[in-house]
Design goal:
ArsC family reductase; four-stranded mixed β-sheet; globular; Arsenate_reductase-like; Tscrpt_reg_Spx/MgsR; Glutaredoxin; Thioredoxin-like_sf; 4 strands; alpha+beta; 8 helices
Length: about 120
């Protein structure tokens, strides 16, 4: 699988991440949740590999708007349902290829991972 960056085009963090990839000559495919939806199988892979606590962005407005009961009882299966219904609750960006999955943008980590 080629390197794919998953997220939302208008997100500032996504813009920084894609600029970093471009500036470092890293080829990638951009998957926009708003236009293409969230691929459920990939979402399940992310949750299995990283845990819902990493994949779900608990600092964003989408998380804060969720019902307190949902937040209090969040688990992997609920994370699938919530993320499919509200893609903006997924931490951005998610970067994936055949050998790794990472959530969030950290230039230093990406430099090490993408060498």
């Amino acid at each position: 699988m080629e390197l794919t960056i998953f997220g939302i085009k208008n997100c500032d963090t996504m813009k920084k991440a894609m600029k970093w990839l471009d500036d470092n000559g890293v080829a990638y495919h951009f998957h926009d949740y708003k236009k293409e939806g969230v691929p459920e199988q990939r979402l399940r892979e992310w949750l299995e590999a990283l845990g819902w606590e990493t994949v779900i962005n608990k600092r964003g407005t989408t998380w804060r708007k969720l019902d307190d009961g949902i937040k209090a009882t969040m688990n992997t299966e609920k994370a699938v349902t919530v993320a499919l219904e509200n893609p903006s609750v997924i931490k951005r960006p998610l970067l994936q290829n055949d050998s790794f999955i990472t959530a969030g943008f950290n230039a230093d980590e990406w430099q090490q991972t993408l060498k």
